[in-house]
């Protein structure tokens, strides 16, 4: 069946090959590049870029080679509101957001998809390394490039209108195919880090938005062991950047209290998390667990490219209680927990709070 497909073209090799595959499959494909900044020069460029003027030109050239219409959509206002401002607000609240995940959720698969459907398109095609099977999101065959985690926030309805042509191949195969197709982006490096922080200095960016606010660094007993210039510069599990005056042991950020402007630190053993409260759950690969069906046994991933843990999930009020089979370290509120059945995504929830794991028994 021929579909009207809107191909989101970032200017990179993945989205270019995805658009080419959709066109080769016989679909009626239109390419679109998202202009996400009113001042593109403030965003990253070159090998470390994403969604810049340079990327727009690369996307247009790729569309010309593929032979599809191409447009640029101005999404700067939506991106600033739903991604950049959300990023700043989350840090101000003592949480650690994932802006790429939020961009996928709010821009590529909400604002863009809504507009695409309104214009009569049947699907949005992207270059994410992920598969769809039986309506569920499934990990890519390239485990190192798998992006199911950052798409785990998508709803079932959004997945119905999504097309992911690259999930059955590796990144090396994508680059080789791009070269065979004559796409100039075949050797273009992948983008890294946060696109709207031009110099990569997240702490400096947040200080510019939130200002400096010195406060105490305390240990678990409440003793002041140092001072910080702004709690927003820290995230749970962080070790670097702590000026503790030559403390005898390594200490890590355990928690951030924005109201009192306090950062609490402690040994690595205190980072062990045994249970998590999940807020705003989204279930795309199954129905939401019912309170009377018992705990759901599955696996959970707690950060992009992070370790996968066995767990049980049960409803808890409007949210979820996630109990880990083995302790996890450095779990930060504001990040996302994505649930899996094998390689298939079941759903996701925002990490609202954590509970420490019991201390390991000491044999005597």
UniProtKB/TrEMBL annotation:
Domain tRNA-specific 2-thiouridylase MnmA-like C-terminal: 276-351
Residues reported in the UniProt entry to bind ATP: 8-15, 34, 127
Swiss-Prot/TrEMBL keywords: ATP-binding, Cytoplasm, Disulfide bond, Nucleotide-binding, RNA-binding, Transferase, tRNA processing, tRNA-binding
Listed name of the protein: tRNA-specific 2-thiouridylase MnmA
E.C. numbers: 2.8.1.13
Site description Interaction with tRNA, residues in chain: 128, 335
Region (Interaction with tRNA): 145-147
Matches recorded under CDD domains: MnmA_TRMU-like (cd01998)
Reactions this protein catalyses: S-sulfanyl-L-cysteinyl-[protein] + uridine(34) in tRNA + AH2 + ATP = 2-thiouridine(34) in tRNA + L-cysteinyl-[protein] + A + AMP + diphosphate + H(+)
Record's function text: Catalyzes the 2-thiolation of uridine at the wobble position (U34) of tRNA, leading to the formation of s(2)U34.
Family to which the UniProt record says this protein belongs: Belongs to the MnmA/TRMU family.
Pfam families for this protein: tRNA_Me_trans, tRNA_Me_trans_C, tRNA_Me_trans_M
Organism of this sequence: Nocardiopsis suaedae
Annotated active site: 103, 195
Domain tRNA-specific 2-thiouridylase MnmA-like central intervals: 205-266
Subcellular location: Cytoplasm
């Amino acid at each position: 069946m021929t579909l009207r497909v809107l191909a989101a073209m970032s200017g990179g090799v993945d989205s270019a090959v995805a658009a080419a595959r959709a066109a080769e499959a016989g679909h009626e494909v239109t390419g679109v590049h998202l202009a996400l900044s009113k001042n593109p020069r403030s965003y990253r460029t070159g090998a470390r870029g994403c969604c810049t003027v340079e990327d727009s030109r690369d996307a247009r050239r790729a569309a010309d080679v593929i032979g599809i219409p191409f447009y640029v959509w101005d999404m700067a206002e939506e991106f600033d509101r739903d991604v950049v401002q959300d990023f700043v607000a989350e840090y101000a609240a003592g949480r650690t957001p994932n802006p790429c995940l939020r961009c996928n959720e709010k821009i590529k698969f909400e604002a863009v998809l809504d507009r695409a459907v309104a214009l009569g398109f049947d699907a949005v095609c992207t270059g994410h390394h992920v598969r769809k099977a039986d309506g569920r999101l499934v990990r890519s065959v390239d485990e190192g490039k798998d992006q199911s985690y950052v798409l785990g926030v998508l709803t079932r309805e959004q997945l119905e209108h999504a097309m992911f042509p690259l999930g059955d191949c590796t990144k090396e195969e994508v680059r080789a195919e791009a070269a065979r197709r004559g796409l100039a982006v075949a050797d273009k490096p992948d983008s890294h880090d946060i696109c709207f922080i031009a110099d990569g200095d997240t702490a400096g960016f947040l200080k510019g938005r939130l200002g400096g606010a010195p406060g105490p660094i305390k240990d678990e007993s409440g003793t002041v062991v140092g001072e910080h210039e702004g709690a927003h510069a820290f995230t749970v599990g962080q070790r670097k950047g702590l000026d503790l005056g030559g403390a005898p042991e390594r200490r890590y950020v355990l928690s951030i209290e924005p109201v009192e402007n306090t950062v609490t630190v402690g040994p690595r053993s205190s980072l062990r998390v045994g249970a998590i409260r999940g807020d705003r759950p989204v279930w795309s690969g199954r129905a939401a667990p019912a309170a009377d069906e018992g705990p759901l046994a599955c696996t959970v991933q707690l950060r992009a490219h992070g370790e996968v843990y066995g767990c049980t999930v049960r409803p808890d009020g409007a949210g979820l209680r996630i109990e880990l089979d083995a302790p996890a370290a450095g779990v930060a509120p504001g990040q996302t927990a994505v649930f899996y059945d094998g390689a298939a995504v079941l759903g996701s929830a925002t990490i609202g709070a954590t509970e420490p794991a019991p201390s390991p028994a000491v044999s005597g």
